[in-house]
Amino acid sequence: MSTTTSAPKKAPASAPPRAKRKLSYPVVLLLVAGGLLLLSLVRVITGDVQLSNSQQFSSALGAAVPIGLAGLGGLWAERAGVINIGLEGMMMLGTFAAGWMGWQYGPWAAVLAGIIGGALGGLLHALATVTFGVDHIVSGVALNILALGLVRYLAKLWFGATGSAAAQAGGNDKQSPPMDSMSTFSVPGLADGLGSIEKHHWFLVSDLAGILRALVDDVSWLTVLTALLFVGSFFVLWRSSFGLRLRSCGENPVAAESLGVNVYFYKYAALTISGALAGLGGAFLAVGVHIYQENQTGGRGYIGLATMIFGNWRPGGVAMGAGLFGFMDALRVVGGGTTVHAMLLLMAVLLVGLAVWKLRTGLRGARIQAAVSLVIAVLLVLWYALTDTVALEFVEMTPYVTTLLVLSLAAQRLRAPRAIGKSYRRGEGT
């Protein structure tokens, strides 16, 4: 009697997961060009010339620099595997140190002092997290609280003491005496030529002239330094052996140690640089208004952390995020309720574009996200049509609402370093 065996049934092959597309530089340039085109269109429809003039972009550039420096500082720390919630506190230390040194020795001494003050904050965070293994979030929050109390105490002691030299020079327990202005530069001929083009209010051309004029007219040297730091950070972290070892500490410190990398050294170096960059951002704030003021950072350290996440832990992404948040912050300062009201229409158009893109991806839950985007877009259009301006309270909230919206939209494309936030002890891999 013969027996027959049936071949085992093969399980149906599952479709391979769809790889996420990376944003290449040509795509980024197309997105920027599309954003400029939409901005020009909204400016023409609403008639709000303040939306894209050089004053708006100059203010946006000034607002973006401290946010970008804080974000870049967070990138250095987190690429080495250490979460840096303490960026706000490091910026506070930078603003105070810059105010204390600046009124005595000038703005460039203030910049150096701000860098040192922030670096000391970074070293303190490294001591807590790397050496003693304190939870990174706890250490960062504690550093923010400590920095706030310390600068308030020192301001009363050094700036507000009755009869002190600082008090006689105009200081008090809330601010430092004024310091000298830092010189700026303009490109002769080019700035005036772009200004004349901007005044014609031509579609797209005048808007582009306004952006370019902001980059060549009355620009702070610290802005140029910030741009160089972004470029330098990219080459150091992604084009050098030092950067490769530092990033390996954030991806797999045990494997890095097995290859002879001193993980403790690179984490300390990353946090020192992180604090120095955040302190430079704080110094930029103090030098820009010529004094240190209490609560001068205004949460920019936290927004810088958001730009780092939005930028997917990349210098270019951080720069784009800082530019976006700086632009929204400048709307609050320069444009006011009327310009923010015009932005409602631009946000509606962007949300419609987002809904179309979500539907094209075909990912799980894309239809729900697209529907939500369309509903919000309709509400924004109704808000724009039924009102003439935006309440001052909402104008003040604009940068923070933008932070939440951008992070919620960018969440699906993020990939943090694998070992971020994890405690490390030498010899764990043996």
From TrEMBL:
Pfam families membership: BPD_transp_2
A Gene Ontology term for the protein's cellular component: plasma membrane
Tagged with keyword Transmembrane: yes
Membrane topology: Multi-pass membrane protein
Sequence intervals crossing the membrane: 23-45, 57-76, 82-101, 108-130, 136-155, 219-238, 268-291, 333-356, 368-386
Keyword Lipoprotein: no
Stored InterPro entries: ABC_transp_permease
Main location: membrane
Compartment(s) of residence: Cell membrane
GO molecular function: transmembrane transporter activity
Keywords from the named record: Cell membrane, Membrane, Transmembrane, Transmembrane helix
Domain of life of the native organism: Bacteria
Protein name (Swiss-Prot/TrEMBL): ABC transporter permease
Originating species: Streptomyces qinglanensis
